[in-house]
Design brief:
The structure is a single chain. The protein contains twelve helices and 15 strands. It has helices at residues 59-78, 152-155, 168-173, 181-198, 216-226, 247-255, 263-269, 291-296, 315-331, 356-367, 452-460, 462-473, and strands at 2-9, 87-93, 98-105, 108-109, 112-117, 128-134, 146-150, 204-214, 233-237, 302-307, 338-342, 377-378, 416-424, 429-432, 436-438. The strands form two sheets. Strands 2, 3, 4, 5, 6, 7, 8, 9, 10, 11 and 12 form an eleven-stranded mixed β-sheet that branches. Strands 1, 13, 14 and 15 form a four-stranded antiparallel β-sheet that branches. The radius of gyration is 22 Å and the shape is globular. It starts with a strand and ends in a 9-residue tail after the last helix. The model is unreliable at 1-14, 16-25 and 383-482 (pLDDT under 50).
């Protein structure tokens, strides 16, 4: 059966769900080699454009593009994440509920402890869903979920720039390893999941694992989720710049006199990123990526971004960056798998009760397979949008809204295209017709992404859109377009 409908897409390809063999059929383009970057990109880079200039048009190609984005971010910002060592052992103490993870490389061996706290209100022997808390949890953990903790500072120290190269990770891979602290934590978390897979007596369901952390550890939580596809749900809390915020948006916000953390400040403060990132901290526009693309490495898995409106965290940057990132989930037909919630007027890393319902919804959806309303893109600073200041800088390139109070988002909202998409649901293929620019800014009035839903209802029909929305909420079409 084939469905034909005009769909409004904002610089997003229509990605059909792959067949069972599509992920292994064909090859990906060669990954770009590391080089000195010289091309300035003043807008948020297009996540759907390969480095070779070709555009993503299928699920398989998006998988390839994710690999490319991962490589770019490791090369220029975070450093390389090593694979699991072949020499790898695990010990489990069923009394203390401590897992000892012991990898070895070239005769050098380290070990670190992982503590598991089991659900207090659940009967039965498991296996249980679990939340790995980087640096401990600042969100309320449900009693029905196991919690997993380890000392991430022991893996890679984060007590200032002098901490670079210190910690168990560097004992194994050398103090001159390219990885910054966040990639080292991501590596350790992946080894924890390896160990849990090898230890059925630990009774953890490794298909139902979430990761969280707040502030600097929230930055780390986003990196952890981005670099391990086994993580079902990623919950970075108040991560700000270097986490949910985009570097370019932070620089623009800072230029307006707002006290926000920027890349230049961050690299002088701590060792979270690779030393190689220092060269670009004052030349962010040279990077072929930004953090909407880091978040996009999580797609289409679950991502709930929790933020605060403290200036230093950059609520303008985080909202604009994650609003843009959500377009990736939209292209995958999984937009409700990614949400953003920001509530201010509370202390840093103090979880407000108003965010409990959406947190519970994400945990229910991704750790218990209970259909829940996970649609959220909420901020207390959205009312500061001033559309008349939006500027158009090109048809295919995403761009910022440069609006009141330093509020920024991307021109996925400005440059929308009307395309006729034919979707063959039996063969899971998608054919894109010629794109035509939908001129929506002739008066210099940018159209905000909030209007996307209304535009879709006009073009597709409210009944059809509601049917699709219902299918997505019930999981019937979670990974593909209807």
């Amino acid at each position: 059966m084939k469905f034909f409908a005009p769909i409004l897409l904002c610089a997003i390809p229509s990605l059909a769900a792959p067949s069972a063999s599509e992920d292994v059929r064909g090859s990906c383009p060669d990954l770009p080699t590391k080089k000195n970057l010289t091309t300035s990109i003043t807008t948020l880079p297009d996540p759907f454009l390969f480095s070779n200039g070709k555009r993503v048009s299928s699920q398989h190609q998006w998988n390839c593009r994710q690999k490319e984005i991962s490589q770019l971010i490791q090369d220029y910002e975070l450093g390389a994440k090593p694979a699991r060592p072949t020499d790898f052992s695990v010990a489990w103490d069923n009394v203390s509920k401590v897992l000892v993870v012991a990898p070895a490389v070239d005769g050098k061996k380290i070990s670190f402890n992982v503590t598991i706290k089991y659900p207090s209100t659940t009967t039965g022997a498991g296996p249980f869903p679990a939340i790995i808390a980087i640096g401990g949890a600042s969100i309320p953990l449900p009693a029905s979920v196991a919690s997993i903790t380890f000392v991430n500072d022991e893996i890679a120290s984060q007590y200032g720039i002098q901490s670079r190269g210190k910690g168990l990770f560097y004992d194994l891979y050398g103090s001159d390893a390219s990885a910054g602290a966040m990639i080292a934590w991501a590596w350790a978390t992946s080894r924890i999941i390896d160990a849990l897979e090898m230890t059925p007596d630990a009774q953890i369901d490794t298909s139902k694992i979430a990761v969280t952390g707040c502030s600097r550890n929230g930055k780390g939580a986003l990196v952890v989720g981005a670099f391990d596809k086994r993580i079902a749900l990623t919950i970075p809390q108040e991560s700000g710049t270097g986490g949910a915020g985009c570097w370019r948006l932070a620089d623009d916000t800072y230029s307006q006199g707002i006290n926000i953390q920027t890349a230049h400040e961050l690299v002088g403060e701590n060792s979270w990123c690779s030393k190689d990132f220092d060269a670009y901290a004052t030349s962010i526009n040279l990077l072929p990526f930004d953090h909407h693309m880091l978040a996009g490495l999580v797609a289409p898995r679950g991502l709930l971004v929790i933020e605060n409106n403290i200036n230093w965290l950059g609520p303008q940057s985080t909202y604009g960056c994650m609003k843009t990132a959500n377009k990736i989930w939209q292209a995958l037909g999984a937009q409700d798998n990614m949400g953003f919630t920001e509530i201010g007027v509370h202390s840093h890393c103090r979880f407000p009760a108003e965010q409990q319902s959406i947190l519970s919804a994400y945990i229910s959806q991704f750790l218990f397979d209970t259909p829940s309303n996970t649609s959220v893109m909420a901020t207390t600073v959205a009312s500061s949008f001033n559309e008349t200041k939006s500027k158009r800088r090109g048809v295919h390139n995403p761009e910022f809204y440069n609006v009141g109070m330093g509020k920024l988002t991307s021109s996925f909202a400005v440059h929308c295209f009307r395309t006729n998409t034919v979707l063959d649901t039996e063969n899971s293929t998608s054919v894109r017709a010629t794109l035509q620019l939908k001129d929506i800014d002739t008066q210099g009035q940018g159209r905000l992404v909030e209007n996307l839903g209304n535009d879709l209802r006009t073009l597709v029909g409210a009944d059809a859109l509601e049917e699709r929305s219902t299918q997505e909420r019930t999981g019937k079409r979670r990974w593909g377009l209807t």
